[in-house]
Amino acid sequence: MDYLQVDFRDKALFLELFGEDVFAVGGFIRDHLRQDPSEDVDILILKHPVEEIVAKLKPYGRVDLVGKSFGVIKFTREGKTYDIALPRIDRPKETFQRSHKDFQIIADPYLPLEKDLSRRDFRCNSIALRLADGRLFDPFNGQSDIKNKILRMTNPEAFPEDPLRVLRAARFASVLEFSLEPSIYELAQEIDLQGLSQERVNDELFRLLLNSAKPSRGLQEFFKLGVLKQLFPELYRLTLAIQDALFHPETDEFGHHTVWPHTLITVDQAARLARKFKLSRAKTLCLLLAALFHDIGKPPTAEWEYKNGRLVLTNKRHDILGEKITAKVFNRMKLFSWEGTDVRTITLNLIRCHHRPSELWQNREVITRKALNRLAADVDGEIDLLILLDVADRSGRSTKPIHDLDEAGRWLKEKFTELNVSRETIQPIVMGRHLLKLGVEPGPLMGKILKKIYELQLDNEFQTLEEGLEIAKKIVAKEQALGKRKNQKET
Questions:
Q1: Which residue of 47, 49, 133, 476 has the fewest CB atoms within a 10 Å radius of its CB?
Q2: Same domain, 1 and 102
Q3: What residues make up the domain containing 17?
Q4: Domain co-membership, 26 together with 139
Q5: Cβ contacts of residue 463 below 8 Å, gap of 6+?
Q6: Could you tell me if residue 137 is inside a domain?
Q7: How far is 469 from 431, CA to CA, in rounded Å?
């Protein structure tokens, strides 16, 4: 294909300002050729110095110069942002550990188009389209790779110079559902990833999880490319930890019964459920991270035990240890809040409690409101996410796709509704301001009393403020009496 007609909101403006020197490049063109158009437009402008580009754009919107030497501009007009670049070359710095920032990036507006395209990571991303007439420039035959659904390196010699490309290879393979050319695996084993900024690593992982129909595809590429071993050793250990085939018949592509294939299937099932129930991006990330790390505590807790006349591999309290291990991973990732959501706390709660729904299902004949209160409080009200994780985990023994809650998941969701337990009902009824009126000053004693009262609320001892205040009065009186006796002994 030599020509392709594309359109986007401000195309006419760019043509008016830059004529035949403005091109759409990269993923925008790739996705149009895949017949899956993206709204994110990357613009390349030739033969115009950065100062001239900025001056021409300023009357029409906000212009942010990311880096003058980089030749990268963010142009925002009526809420839409365009990444605009000049042709450039990337020269690696001589460093022992190379990070994504260890490059001398030189912008040159008069650099030939093909020279700029040659620095890009994969051939499918090394295609440009001239906006003036729709002509495609494809010097590396990227269209063939798109047709054949394969990722091939644009410049194999330069590929190792940017370690982030290893993670991008996995993400593109997952999101685009492309295969990788075999030589990428060989090159990746020799690339040191330790110098990559954690922010960029997180970005690649999150985009892989959130934008893939089957995130397992990219996660398996992380394993095969050496990303797990270098950057996520805790996950790498799952590929080495065996499971009892009687309880976990799932295997990896090599036929091994390890924790890793169960983890991959669980993540895929969780992704399907997130789409089914239309979770927000942040809540989807919480669910998928919980699915990815939910069995991280299995390798160090593995033990053989005799049960029913046979040796069985057990992993007692792996959920509790798993929360602690994941917390350390999140510390390394500097992962706390994301898009306004406390991803860290929510995910850790889900991991710690991921076995509890199944335990309730097994004891469903004697279930109490107290048990549901406790569980809801332990996950800070994220009941729906916990149910989805439980269903995904249970479905992680089979590659058969799930698209809704199973029987146990439906039962638990209905039980929470029937017994009126929700995020709202587990909020503390008696607050500090109520204790102030009872003569309790702010401090450790108030905190101690509030904790006792809340425990009783979760135990279903009271459900209204009036009932709670009656209990509070008794506890306050008891604590005050204890305080008086203590003071008398001291005097």
A1: 133
A2: yes
A3: 1-145
A4: yes
A5: 429, 457
A6: yes
A7: 10
Q: How many whole angstroms separate alpha carbon 417 and alpha carbon 414?
A: 5
Question: Is 438 within a domain?
Answer: yes
Residue 161 dihedral angles phi and psi, to the nearest 5°: -70, -25
Amino acid in position 308:
N
Q: What is the pLDDT of residues 6-59, one digit of tens each?
A: 999 999 999 999 999 999 999 999 999 999 999 899 999 999 999 999 999 999
- The string of pLDDT tens digits covering residues 240-298 is 999 988 888 999 888 889 999 999 999 999 999 999 999 999 999 999 999 999 999 99
Residue 244: how many other CB atoms lie within 10 Å: 16
Q: At what angle do helices 281-293 and 259-276 cross, to 10 degrees?
A: 160
User: What is the structure's pLDDT at 98?
Assistant: 47
Q: 444 and 405 share a domain?
A: no
What is the biggest distance separating any 2 CA atoms in the chain, rounded to whole angstroms?
96
Six token digits for residue 49: 């110095």
Q: Cα(469)–Cα(489) distance, rounded to whole angstroms?
A: 30
Report the C-alpha gap between 384 and 350 in whole angstroms: 11
Percent of the chain residues past pLDDT 90, beyond the cut? 87
Q: What is the CATH number of the domain that holds 6?
A: 3.30.460.10
Report the alpha-carbon distance of residue 235 to residue 231 in Å, rounded: 9
DSSP 103-139: EEEEE-TTS-HHHHHHTSSBGGG--EEETTT-BEE-T
pLDDT tens digit sequence for 200-226: 999 999 999 999 999 999 999 999 999
For residues 421 and 284, membership in a common domain is answered with yes
Co-location of 365 and 386 in the same domain: yes
The helix (H) or strand (E) run that includes residue 359 is helix 356-362
Same domain, 278 and 318: yes
Where does a domain end: 374, 396, 427?
Answer: 427
Tally of domains within the chain: 3
Say if 243 falls within a structural domain: no
Pairing of strands 80-85, 42-45: parallel
In the three-class reduction of DSSP (H, G, I as helix; E, B as strand; rest coil), residue 76 is classed as strand
Quick one: 436 and 368 in the same domain?
Answer: no
Which uninterrupted H or E stretch holds 272? Answer: helix 259-276
Is residue 402 in a domain?
yes
Do 344 and 413 reside in the same domain of the chain?
A: yes
Instruction: Over range 378-392, report the average pLDDT.
Output: 98
CA distance 388 to 186: 38
Single out the residue in 113, 145, 177 at which a domain terminates: 145
